[in-house]
Amino acid sequence: AGVISAILLSGTVYSANMTVGFSQIGSESGWRAAETSVAKSEAEKRGITLKIADAQQKQENQIKAIRSFIAQGVDAIFIAPVVQTGWDPVLQEAKEAEIPVFLLDRNITTKDDSLFMTGVAADSVHEGAVAAEWLIKQLNGQACNVVELQGTVGASVALDRKKGFLDAVAAVPTIKIIRTQSGDFTRSKGKEVMESFIKAESNGKNICAVYAHNDDMAIGAIQAIKEAGLKPGKDIKIVSIDGVPDIFKAMIAGETNASVELTPNMAGPAFDALLAYKKDGSMPPKNIKTKSILFQPDSAQAQLEMKKSMGY
Ligand code: AHR
């Protein structure tokens, strides 16, 4: 592992000679692409060499990449775990090689919490609850049939976003989830699944709202709704998660209603925790939680401009 020379310059830690291997899931969504590009710029700011391996949505590719990072003797490994389970053996190998592991944007289930240093992520159960509370408020007692576009099967964020939404609407008997299926966090699958929901539900007339686990699937759903001759955001309400520029554009066009923002800057807090640990052994908290703020059309233009200025 490289020697660290970290100096504090106007509040920013710069570090030389450190290499981090990042096992990224892929590029399934606009949010994911933003997370990768922010990780690159956050590494550059701190003088850290970042090696990114794209797993093309496959856990086996992530495991291979992690083994390769271990063999290269990197100073730390960042992992955005595509699914929640099955990580313990490879994390044990990293631990034996004394390479600290940081989890980004998704959680894992493990028998041994010491296999990773910290996880930077939002509370995804809370994200689902925020989306549900928005819908409950909009409906104001009106009955509503909801269709749900789930994220990748087995991903912590899909399981937790589902749970948060379900738990919140369980208290409201007039809201029913009539169909639910995975759209794998992609625009194309979101559209495909929404088309099948529309066909099965009286050409969409029986659907009152879409809850999409991410913005890209919501954008796919918008296209499907339009092609069915209905008005997205009006005939069918839409709430999703991420807060990517394209969803703010859709809000401005009046085609979607709300999105719960997930910051793409997961790497920044992980780099800071890594630098503090390498400097004096400081242990970060087990979870570093990011905020979940709901945005609606009234602030879409401002959000879009802010994202542009941040280079997202
Ligand atoms: O893990 C975060 C999720 O993964 C984002 O919400 C989604 O867009 C991405 O693919």
Total beta strands: 14
Low-confidence stretches: 1-12
| N-to-C order of helices and strands | EEEHEHEHEEHEHEHEHEHEHEEH
Roughly how much helix do the residues carry, as a percent range?
40-55%
User: What oligomerization state is this entry in?
Assistant: single chain
- Bound ions, cofactors and other small molecules, one mention each: alpha-L-arabinofuranose
- Rg over CA atoms: 20 Å
Shape: elongated
Main sheet characteristics: 6 strands, parallel
Please report the number of helical segments.
10
Give me the side-by-side strand order of the main sheet. 4-3-5-6-7-13
Distance between the termini: 32 Å
Q: Please state the structural category.
A: alpha/beta
Task: Provide key terms for this protein.
alpha/beta; 6-stranded parallel β-sheet; 10 helices; 14 strands; binds alpha-L-arabinofuranose
Reconstruct the topology from this structure.
Layout: E1 5-9, E2 12-16, E3 18-24, H1 30-45, E4 48-54, H2 59-72, E5 76-79, H3 88-96, E6 101-104, E7 118-122, H4 124-139, E8 144-150, H5 156-169, E9 175-182, H6 187-200, E10 209-212, H7 215-227, E11 237-242, H8 245-252, E12 258-261, H9 267-280, E13 287-290, E14 294-295, H10 300-309
Parallel strand pairs: 3-4, 3-5, 5-6, 6-7, 7-13, 8-9, 8-10, 10-11, 11-12
Antiparallel strand pairs: 1-2, 12-14
Helix pairs in contact: 4-5, 6-7, 8-10
Alpha-L-arabinofuranose binds next to helix 1 and strand 11.
Can you walk through the features of this model?
It is a single chain. The chain is of the alpha/beta class and 312 residues long. Helix content is 41%, strand content 23%. The chain is built from 10 helices and 14 strands. A 6-stranded parallel sheet has the order 4-3-5-6-7-13, sandwiched between helices. α3 links the parallel β5 and β6. α4 runs parallel beside α5, α6 packs across α7 and α8 runs antiparallel to α10. It is elongated, with a radius of gyration of 20 Å. The relative contact order is 0.14. The N terminus is likely disordered. Bound molecules: alpha-L-arabinofuranose. Alpha-L-arabinofuranose binds next to α1 and β11.
